[in-house]
Design a protein that fits this description.
19 helices; mainly alpha
Length: 521
């Protein structure tokens, strides 16, 4: 039920009030009880990691298998739109927008830090640390966390939305993804529950990324101009960049968001060329090929590994899978409503097969190239170069990128790359925030692709406030707090995603049956 007049004009008042109430309650509790809130968040992560780790692992692998089966089946030829409809956006623009939305800030933050952590700290999949074998496995595990499984999670939501919106002519709202199962019931109380869960996951998922991004921007400003790394500076950055993001989201999808996404992609290409041209080119190319092949060969092993629950005296921080894999799957699930709606909006006219292979396959390949360019260069510096990256990551993970630039020792070119890297983090920050704001407003307006400006402003501001509160609540353990928020927010939405898979099968079956009937007649 969308209100046509008054303060709630253009949105569902129940979904909006409940979503805002939950978020405001969280903000109040954190600010009123800063010491206790950090302990509460830590306890919540312990519970989820100990008792639901298996759920995240099985679900992520199941989504990937499910999508591959659909892509190679008879349903792959179904077009997401009218039979003669063709895509609005070129491949370059399409990939630029979905990639900027799906893995922008996060991959800049972790593409060096994660391989270095695995290289120096070890993983359950390789013996020893600090060796060439450990470096290869570090890249493979990073591929696992940023590759096919991650994009499969996004693709489930996006495909469900495309089918109900472009084949069944329903609004582009999360609640309608379950229309093939529950029919018109999604327009009542059930729909409100679905929307609130989706908004909760989206707000905290994006806030996690914004919190990570702003710490890296602060690190870049410190590296270039000596600006101190403090919570105060980071809060100012959140406020300033959130303001820019609000201006972008008010301009709409085909202006600010589209242009910034293309800028992101070109800056990404420039920095990738920098690493491959001025970095250890041969090592990177060989590592890309070997790590990709090894990752695909070990994909089954990665997907069935479930870390055992230790004794109750052990905290979540002592569990490797809880710190890494469970966090990532939770992070991707919390982003899935946002990325799913956004990817669906820019994917009309493509076939199901083209859509799955593009979203899951091509995007994963770009992530592999990125991780090897950034993380591979850092690993080379540790194995054969001056080192220093591992020490920098251990002391401040936000400095990983800039420590790698210093290890490359390319003079003024490295300084320029550092400036471009900081700009890239900032532009990804803006596109993640503005895209997320547009999606949240779309969800609460029950699928209206052009939500009112007032609601974009309100929810864009909420994202910035939640990111700031999470940073304040975390104190010295801000990274842990941000990760915890993503994992907890993802748990309820993961159940909705399983139901989406059932809805996708039912929708595809009906569409294929209708197509066969039309051919016969």
């Amino acid at each position: 039920m969308v209100i046509r007049s008054g303060i709630f004009r253009g949105v569902n008042p129940y979904s909006s009030l409940i979503s805002a109430g939950v978020i405001l309650l969280f903000i109040f509790l954190v600010l009123a009880f800063p010491t206790n809130s950090a302990s509460w968040i830590d306890s919540a992560r312990t519970i989820v990691t100990f008792y639901f780790n298996w759920w995240y692992v099985i679900m992520s692998g199941g989504f990937l298998v499910f999508l591959i089966a659909i892509a190679v089946s008879k349903y792959g030829a179904i077009r997401l739109g009218d039979a003669d409809e063709r895509p609005k956006y070129s491949y370059f623009t399409w990939f630029a927008m979905l990639y900027a939305a799906g893995q922008g800030i996060g991959i800049i933050f972790w593409s060096i830090a994660e391989p270095i952590f695995h290289y120096s700290g070890g993983t359950p999949f390789a013996e020893g640390t600090g060796t060439a074998e450990a470096a290869d496995m570090a890249l493979q595990v990073s591929f696992f966390h940023w590759g096919l499984n991650a994009w499969a999670i996004y693709c489930i939501v996006a495909l469900a939305l495309c089918l109900v919106s472009y084949r069944l002519n329903k609004p582009l709202g999360i609640r309608y993804t379950l229309y093939p199962l529950f029919g018109d019931h999604v327009e009542g109380k059930l729909g409100v529950v679905i929307d609130v869960i989706a908004v909760f996951a989206t707000i905290f998922g994006i806030a996690t990324s914004l919190g990570l991004g702003v710490t890296q921007i602060n690190a870049g400003l410190n590296h270039i101009w000596g600006i101190p790394i403090t919570k105060g500076v980071q809060l100012v950055l959140i406020a300033a960049i959130t303001g820019v993001a609000l201006c972008s989201v008010l301009s709409g999808l085909d202006r600010g968001i589209k242009w910034l996404s293309q800028v992101n992609m070109w800056l990404t290409i420039v920095l990738l060329v920098f690493f491959f041209a001025w970095g250890p080119t041969r090592y990177l190319l060989v590592s890309l090929g070997e790590a990709t092949v090894s990752y695909l060969m070990n994909l089954f092993k990665f997907n069935v590994y479930i870390e055992g629950v230790p004794n109750e005296a052990t905290r979540w921080s002592d569990m490797w899978q809880g710190w890494w894999t469970t966090f990532y799957w939770g992070w991707w699930i919390s982003w899935a409503p946002f990325v799913g709606v956004f990817v669906a909006r820019v994917s009309r006219g493509r076939t199901v097969r083209e859509f799955i292979f593009g979203v899951v396959g091509v995007s994963s390949l770009l992530s592999f190239v990125w991780i090897v360019a950034y993380g591979g260069t850092a690993l080379w510096a540790e194995l054969f170069g001056p080192g220093g990256v591992s020490d920098a990551v251990s002391s401040n993970v936000s400095m990983a990128l800039f420590a790698t630039f210093e290890a490359m020792d390319v003079g003024v070119i490295g300084v320029v790359a550092g400036v471009l890297g900081t700009i890239l983090v900032t532009t990804y920050f803006v596109t993640s925030s503005d895209s997320g704001t547009l999606v949240v407003a779309t969800i609460l307006s029950e699928g209206n692709e052009h939500p009112m400006y007032r609601h974009r402003l309100i929810w864009g501001s909420f994202e910035g406030v939640v990111a700031a509160v999470l940073l304040v609540a975390g104190g010295s353990a801000a990274l842990s707090t941000l990760q915890t928020a993503a994992i907890i927010a993802a748990l309820p939405f993961s159940i909705i995603m399983v139901l989406m898979c059932v809805a996708i099968v039912r929708c595809l079956s009906q569409e294929h049956s209708s197509s066969d009937a039309s051919d016969v007649s």
